[in-house]
Amino acid sequence: MAKKNDKKEIEKLRRENIEYKNLIEEMSEGFAFLEGDLTFSFSNPACDGIFGVPEGKLMGRKLQDFLTTEYFKEIKKNIITKKKKKKSVFEIEVNAEDGERRYLLTRSNPHFDEKEKFVGSFVFFYNITKRIKLEEELLFERGLLNSLLNTIPDHIYFKDEKSRFIKVSKSLAEWFNVDSVDGLMGKTDFDFFTEEHARPAYEDEQEIMKTGNPIEGKVEKETHPDGRITWVSTTKIPRYDKKGNIIGILGVSRDVTEKKLWEEEREEKLEAQREELMELSTPVIDVWEGVLTVPILGSLDSERASRVSEALLTQIVEKRAGVAIIDISGISAVDSAVADRFIRTAKAVRLVGSEAILTGVGVEIAQTIADLGIDMGGLKTMSTLKDGLRYVISQKKDKEEKRGEKE
Amino acid sequence: MARLTRMHLGDILVVPIQEELHDTAAEEAGEKIIREANNSNIKGVAIDISALDIVDSFLGRLLQKIAWGLRAMGKEVILVGIQPEVAVALVELGLYLEDINTAFELDSALEKLREMIEKGSE
């Protein structure tokens, strides 16, 4: 009885408005009439296409043929409202017969006969597969991004064009002793660091946004308001919008404090050792009244050479030494820079009022000096320290004798 | 300009330079030394720069010029009290002053000067 009435009703509709029918036939949205048990008793070609069946073959089929049971239950409950003038809008997922899975937005309108009896629903089906797929992809990627930001120990931060945080990793919030990442939103480095670090970091970022040139692996000293000092290795790159305009930066900073401290400590130790060695290896010896000797052992770089001359000159002046013997018999090789340094030292020794003698010039060194064409510039040289001392002593004797003659 | 102290010890003129001299002041001082050495029976000049921690290339060259000028007039010259830093700086500037005698302090400088004068008059 009910079915007979429905068909009559539809026939009436069709007859009454052919144009309306045509409109429905040509619509790109799916349109159908679903009976109370969700049987299609009418569908337009677009609707057939959505469900993946040949044109006209949807009639007599049931909506649940295309749905998972879970969905079906919900639809029964929610979509097909039987209350008068109550529209319902819902999203469903269908397994179309052409093998595709489609997401549809449905809008159904209950329909009643003259006796106010529910006969079925007019339903629009909008294919929203693309949008849903995009959303799913976005959600997936957001999930990936969030898991990255929540777990990675490196500090990751997205900043806007004014260097304000717009998204940060959990590790950064923890770094700043802030309970949640939301506490950083809209703030800047100036809120969490002192000027000493915040200012150059800000200038770096503005420069990146101006030029588009990234910063890679820059070691930065972070100065916290509580006086804490940390070190990070930072990479910052510009962020672009769709049109290619720079709209901010993305930065990654890795805590390298421990490494830095370790390096510093090692550097300090090395420096201390170097100094100790330097002092040990350049002793200035007071061998005779008014005679100083500097025996030089090992290798001589220009740093050590200038240390030697510094120590020697100071001692000469302090002790009023008339003669300074620089013995290089313990040195393996002399390059031109070092030879030049010696000659300069000897000349400076003379300027302060003393006399310099270079002893221990072995065959090899002599050859080097000759090969390099170094002019020893009137610098007195002797082959051994013994010769040097003998020369100095005889000079002294001569002077004393002269003095004795005078008196 | 600061006054330039000059002392006569017999036939020796002693000029202690107490402060850094610049440009015209230094040139004037140099002129004064040469003129004074010429105007009297001075045989040797000792220029004491022990008070100077820094000597620039200008002053370094001026000292050389003064020494050469005095030498040209037949006077002996000795530079006294060049500090280690000054010596290093002069050498770095290429001012070796190789033909000018040096001494640590005035005592030994005077002794050396006398020797030189004696030798010269022999």
What features would you describe in this structure?
The complex is a heterodimer of chains A (407) and B (122). With 407 residues, chain A is α+β, with helices and mostly antiparallel strands. In chain A, 44% of the residues lie in helices and 27% in strands. Chain A contains 12 helices and 15 strands. Chain A has a 5-stranded antiparallel β-sheet with strand order 2-1-5-4-3. In chain A, a hairpin with a 5-residue loop joins strand 3 and strand 4. The longest helix of chain A is centred in the middle third of the chain and has 25 residues. By secondary structure, chain B is α/β, with parallel strands linked by helices. Chain B has a single domain, classed as STAS domain (Transcription Regulator spoIIAA, 2-Layer Sandwich), CATH 3.30.750.24. A 5-stranded mixed β-sheet of chain B has the order 1-2-3-4-5. In chain B, helix 3 links the parallel strand 4 and strand 5. In chain B, helix 1 runs parallel beside helix 2. Chains A and B meet through helix 9 and helix 10 of A and helix 3 of B.
Query: Span from first to last CA of chain B?
Result: 41 Å
- Could you give the order of strands across the largest sheet of chain B? 1-2-3-4-5
Helix count from the secondary structure assignment of chain A: 12
Average pLDDT metric of chain B: 85
Keywords:
heterodimer, A: 407 residues, alpha+beta, Beta-Lactamase, Transcription Regulator spoIIAA, five-stranded antiparallel sheet, 27% strand, rod-shaped, B: 122 residues, alpha/beta, five-stranded mixed sheet, 48% helix
